[in-house]
Amino acid sequence: MKSLLLGSAALALSATFALADTVRLGTEGAYPPYNFINDAGEVDGFERELGDELCKRAELTCEWVTNDWDSIIPNLVGGNYDTIMAGMSITDERDEVIDFTQAYIPPEASRYVGLSADADITGVVASQTGTIQAGYIAESGATLLEYATADELITALRSGEADSVFFQGAFLADIVAENDDIVWVGEPVPLGGGVGVGVRETDGELKDTLNAAITEMKEDGSLNEMLKKWFGEDTATF
């Protein structure tokens, strides 16, 4: 789950939402299996299925909007959409600017990968810019190499620009499974407080509505079933 670091003057913007309107769900569309663009050009993935189900249960009319990761919070605050569902970790720093529902993905570990099991995780380490993983590496003593998108991390590793990659384990799991030259390195590192729906601080009614739907899905077991469908039987559940 990704965690965007803040620091834009655009965050001073504000917007409001009324439940009678169409709810615009903002996502990145570049972070499988959380969210991605399928062959039909549509938003797909775990968060697409979950978001559609939340809207159905809450009797909301919803539509999906995509936005680059590095400006996803400013554009929520600025009113370009009404929620963020983009694998976004709940952090104290972000909670000072926007609000969150309860978590719909439990906290999960970040991981290192390399081209061999003894790859250097203290040298040059690639991570996506503006994430808690990048923040962790910056404070670890290693040399942080930042990229705008997660897909660029493996390219940097294979080209020799980076000694290893540090990112969210669920994103890296499919890459490790599908590529014989990419392996896990070191131990998992727990980061973040789970993933929730981001909303503007002024939209308490929308937050409460979505929280009620998430609670219902937790209680009837459907959220855990959805998590296992997209992340595997061994994934953390509620």
Reading the helices and strands in chain order gives EEEEHEHEHEEEHEHEHEEHH
| Basic shape | globular
Strand order of the largest sheet: 5-1-6-13-7
Radius of gyration: 18 Å
- Low-pLDDT ranges: 5-16
Biggest sheet character: 5 strands, mixed
Query: Can you tell me the CATH topology of the largest domain?
Result: D-Maltodextrin-Binding Protein, domain 2
Instruction: Kindly state the percentage of residues in helix.
Output: 25-40%
Highest-level CATH class of the largest domain: Alpha Beta
- Mean pLDDT score: 91
What can you see in these coordinates?
- Helices cover 33% and strands 25% of the residues.
- The chain contains eight helices and 13 strands.
- A hairpin with a 5-residue loop joins strand 3 (35-37) and strand 4 (43-44).
- The protein has a five-stranded mixed beta sheet.
- By secondary structure, it is of the alpha/beta class.
- The chain folds into two domains: 9-107 and 193-231, Periplasmic binding protein-like II (D-Maltodextrin-Binding Protein, domain 2, 3-Layer(aba) Sandwich), CATH 3.40.190; 109-190, Periplasmic binding protein-like II (D-Maltodextrin-Binding Protein, domain 2, 3-Layer(aba) Sandwich), CATH 3.40.190.
Quickly list its features.
238 residues, alpha/beta, D-Maltodextrin-Binding Protein, domain 2, 2 domains, five-stranded mixed beta sheet, 8 helices, 33% helix, 25% strand, globular
What's the SSE blueprint?
Elements: E1 23-27, E2 30-31, E3 35-37, E4 43-44, H1 46-58, E5 62-66, H2 72-77, E6 83-84, H3 92-95, E7 99-105, E8 109-114, E9 124-128, H4 132-140, E10 143-147, H5 151-159, E11 164-168, H6 169-178, E12 183-190, E13 195-199, H7 204-220, H8 222-231
Parallel strand pairs: 1-5, 1-6, 9-10, 9-11
Antiparallel strand pairs: 2-3, 3-4, 6-13, 7-13, 8-11, 8-12
